Please model this.
Amino acid sequence: MAVSDTEMVNAWTKVLKLSKLQEGQSVAILTDPSTNLQTLATAISASQGLGAIVTRIDLPAVNGGKSLSRDSSSYVGTTSLSGNHSALAALKACDLVLDLMLLLFSPEQEEILRGGTKILLAVEPPEILVRLIPTLEDREAVLIAADKLAAAKTMRVKSAAGTDIIFPLGSYPLLKEYGFVDEPGRWDHWPSGFVATWPTDRTAQGTIVLDSGDIWTPRKTYINTPIKLTVREGYVTSIEGGLDADLLKDYMEYFNDPDAYAISHVGWGLQKRARWSVLGLYNRESTLGMDARSFAGNFLFSLGPNNEVGGSNNSACHIDIPMRNCTVTLDGVDVVQKGCLTGDGASKTLN
Model:
């Protein structure tokens, strides 16, 4: 169902206020040919309504001949900002960048953030943005979960389908996504609601079994037949199963990059308003799949790059897989039991 411009302006205004946008501050809106025009127009209106000085920077499309998908996360690292020093300088001079194209995993994004500029990514369809407007309660719940993750030395994940894997932690920072940017140099994604970190390089060991209903992005489909991933020294060393396994293997082989098979970030979802089941209701080209990445009680793991947190893996292949019905344990204490949040996590689920 379509969303009115009024709803979108109101949604943007709430998010920009949470992001502490002040009158007279500069906002750059970063776009490309894939940008949703309603999201763009209402972002401009809301920013100007709060007294900001707005600049739109529109860049051409890239990677179309390299990517296997129209999804903007299907070939990462190189963006239309790469080598564009004038556009980069303009973005670094702003207080806030609204990223409506997707700079994620690019060195330019990290350079902008280091200068204190805030970046808010928003590329989901307007109806998803309006349904998942972030709140201060979202931030509180994510920070509570992040405290637990920061203190942990080991994450273990198990499932009835056969998953049993251990991730030693502590070498990398945390990813705390709650949907707005309220501190200088902060990046976030509207919508979201999860915590994650990166295991110590070459240490993850075990088995991951993707079961029916788990989700593979950027393909953005549900797994139908189980896929068994064997993980040794931080890398997937075998992919076994039926057609779904063959599809995953063929996709990853295209990149011809051993680092595509490395375990990247691992964490769990906290957003109760996100629904794992809605993926099939959207055109796959219109959504990035943030419902799937954020729904409460998922186990979310990734394959590919970790360069955005100081690692050496800069693979162009980035795969996120949210899983259902897993138990996630930190140093022997469950934070998710069979797909349901536990303890403080259950009471502080994002509403």
Q: What stands out?
A: The first strand starts at residue 26 and ends at 31. Residues 40 and 86 are 22 Å apart (CA to CA). The two ends are 22 Å apart (CA to CA).
